[in-house]
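check these tokens.
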Amino acid sequence: MTVLLRRAFAALAIFSVLLLGAAAARADQGADADDGMKFLRGLADQALALVNAKDIGDADRAEKFRGLFVASFDIPEIGRFVLGRHWKSASATQQRDFLKAFEDFTVLTWSTRFKDYSGVSFEVDGAAPADDGYWLVDSRILRKAGDPLPLGWRIHRVDGHWRITDILIEGVSMALTQRQDFASAMQANGGKIDDLLSAMHKKIDELRAGK
């Protein structure tokens, strides 16, 4: 075999390996996209069933919603993001207390708002890779009246399980909005974590009291 032929066969072998690798990567991406969309559909089915349930009270609904929230959202990552630069200056105890208060505040806020979604349906339109292992899943809430509400979900895997890190409502990032809100709250409280926590606990008590 001539040197030219050996080089041609070597180049062909390398090209084949690259093609197989690219095909495997596309197959993995396709599986992740399908799996991510399946995760969101399952979550939506559970959430809407909870919204439409007529045989449970508000307190039970809130606790069941908490279970969905804790199981489906990456609370530590979201909490670190929304607290921004203040996260690093907080003590370990303050960080833990903030994440717990953030969970309580979010659960109580959204379990109340979810009543407005009774009778709607949910469709997942597709998924695309974002960056660093994250995916963006596009969906729509179909309402009885009015145009569909577009929702984007930023998700990734944590210990083999899908977790949500952000929701985009009509293109607006909820995580970024919360970050801005907490930055304003920190400024109003003189940059003190403990004062922010006190304000959060006060708001949580008001939500529990239905105010």
Q: What stands out?
A: The mean pLDDT is 82. Residues 3-208 form a domain with the Nuclear Transport Factor 2; Chain: A, fold (CATH 3.10.450.710).
